[in-house]
Write a structure and sequence with these properties.
The protein is of the alpha+beta class. The protein has two domains: 30 residues; 76 residues, no CATH class. It contains one helix and four strands, in the order H-E-E-E-E. It has a two-stranded antiparallel ribbon. A two-stranded antiparallel ribbon has the order 3-4.
Length: 107
Amino acid sequence: MKKIKNRLLCVCAIVSVMILTYVLPLFGVQTAPVYVSAVSTDYPVQLMNIVSAENDGIVLSETGTADSSPLAAAELGGSLSCSWRFDYVGTDQNGAFFKICSAESGR
């Protein structure tokens, strides 16, 4: 009888977790962000500038180093806020994935 009771409790716990896993996203419950990092570090880091289509010296720049800092278009300067690197994350059936990181903040 005790074995049956323990198995029933285990089944109830598993079913509860499965239901919560399905139901919580329906109510907009926020989950922790997923952080990714480069899978391979066997290649040297190459810093790049992301330039506007007109190629008039305007590049993508980070305005701060804190989380959620806004990006801006700025003239190319000597600071690392205008430099970016593409970290290889991985591949799946859709192709390769990269994470674009600022050279100044690493974000």
